[in-house]
Specification:
The protein is an alpha+beta fold and 196 residues long. It contains 4 helices and 11 strands, in the order H-H-E-E-E-E-E-E-E-E-E-H-H-E-E. The strands form 3 sheets. Strands 4-3-6-7-9 form a 5-stranded mixed sheet, with no helix packed on it. Strands 1, 2, 5 and 8 form a 4-stranded mixed sheet that branches. The protein starts with a helix and ends in an 8-residue tail after the last strand. The relative contact order is 0.12.
């Protein structure tokens, strides 16, 4: 009888393990969250787009990691899947001065354009350095993201400290229940995950 009971317990554990494994495999979108971003722009010379010949490098200013690419036929370049941080964009092409645009801040999960980078005639050994200043407005897509830091959460007084109430502090978030907090109605998020 004891052998039969031990067998049932093992069988029950195996079934439980199988259910847990199936539940984990059914939720891969939760694992697929990403924080990578895209840095893009256009390289021009005094006569217009430089075409598919400029060498462009994105350099992470904190780590020194470099990612090279070349411009397409319209002078455009793109660096997908970059980690958030501050980047220098370096443009090199024969017959023009090397151009470096520093201090390009790339937030998490955004598409940020460094704009039009215009080259000037000269030797590649000559260099022009431009520093990006101010807060860059993300114009490459309609997606938006916001971040509440732990300091903000600790210092902002909220009735009942209901976590969903903090969402109401972010731009574009509202309730549809007409109440003063998120518990009184549905929270409406603008373009949540690209869904309408």
């Amino acid at each position: 009888m004891n052998h039969h009971r031990t067998r049932n317990i093992r069988l029950h554990r195996a079934k439980l393990l199988l259910v847990v494994a199936a539940a984990c495999l059914a939720c891969p979108p939760a694992w697929a969250q990403t924080i990578s971003s895209t840095l893009l722009g256009t390289v021009t010379d005094p006569s217009g787009p430089v075409g598919p010949k400029a060498n462009v490098t994105a350099i992470n200013e904190a780590t020194g990691e470099q990612r090279p690419t070349t411009t397409d036929g319209s002078g455009n370049f793109s660096f997908p899947s970059l980690l958030p941080g501050t980047y220098t964009v370096k443009v090199e092409i024969t017959g023009f001065r090397t151009l470096e645009k520093t201090n390009n801040r790339l937030p998490a999960n955004e598409r940020v354009s460094v704009g039009e980078l215009q080259l000037t005639l000269g030797s590649m050994s000559d260099s022009i350095s431009v520093t990006a200043e101010g807060t860059r407005v993300q114009t490459a897509s309609s997606e938006s993201s916001s971040l509440l830091t732990s300091t903000q959460i600790d210092t902002i007084a909220q009735k009942g400290r209901v976590l969903s109430n903090y969402l109401l502090l972010l731009p574009g978030v509202s309730t549809t229940g007409g109440g003063a907090d998120a518990a009184s109605g549905f929270i409406t998020l603008p373009n949540a995950g690209g869904l309408p």
